[in-house]
Structures are given as structure tokens and as C-alpha cells.
Design a protein that fits this description.
Mean pLDDT: 87
Low-confidence stretches: none
Structural class: mainly alpha
Strand content: under 5%
Order of helices and strands: HHH
CATH class: Mainly Alpha
Distance between the termini: 54 Å
CATH topology: Cytochrome Bc1 Complex, Chain D, domain 2
Number of helices: 3
CATH architecture: Orthogonal Bundle
Radius of gyration: 19 Å
CATH superfamily: Cytochrome c-like domain
Shape: elongated
Largest sheet: none
């Protein structure tokens, strides 16, 4: 009986961990979508087709989001690290932008 109770508790804990991590991933994706719509879409277009090379390495794109980039002609890409964006948020944003078609 103790073994069955232990197994049921373990299953409940595992389910809780999976649900919490899935919710965190969804919130991150939702946050990235909201950030893109409010801050990026006006320059990069609806599907991130403008001024973004999706073939570049994620690390390079993340650094561009965080540090900004001076363009050949304005507008320049602002840096969002100084506005409070973390590397994890920048990665979620880059992943979201790469997923747009």
C-alpha cells in the first residue's frame, strides 16, 4: 500500500512539474509575441522579413537585440538590454522572429 501511495505522489509531482514548465514556456512565447508586436513589427514587418538575417547564429541575433546595431541608414536597431530585457527574453524573441513566415 505504501508503494502505491508513493507512486501516486511521484506521478502527481511529475505532472505538476511538467505543467509548470509548459506554462512558463507558453508565457515566454506569449511575451515574445507581444514584444514583437509592440516594439519590432513596425520596422521588421509582419513576418520579420525586413532587416533581419534569419540565417545568422542565434547568439549574434541575441546580442543585436540586447546591444542594438547601427544601420547603414536610419532607423538604427535600439539595444533593449538597457531597457531591462534579459538574454533569456532576447532568445525567446529571436526564436519567435525566426518562427514567423
Amino acid at each position: 500500500m505504501k508503494k502505491i501511495a508513493a507512486i501516486l505522489i511521484a506521478i502527481a509531482l511529475a505532472a505538476t512539474v511538467l505543467l509548470v514548465s509548459a506554462a512558463a514556456r507558453n508565457a515566454s512565447a506569449e511575451d515574445a509575441a507581444a514584444t514583437y508586436t509592440s516594439k519590432c513589427k513596425m520596422c521588421h514587418g509582419a513576418t520579420a522579413e525586413k532587416k533581419m538575417d534569419k540565417t545568422k547564429a542565434d547568439d549574434e541575433l541575441i546580442q543585436t537585440v540586447l546591444k542594438g546595431k547601427k544601420a547603414e541608414k536610419p532607423p538604427n536597431m535600439p539595444g533593449y538590454e538597457e531597457k531591462g530585457m534579459t538574454a533569456e527574453q532576447a532568445k525567446a524573441l529571436v526564436d519567435y522572429m525566426k518562427s514567423l513566415k
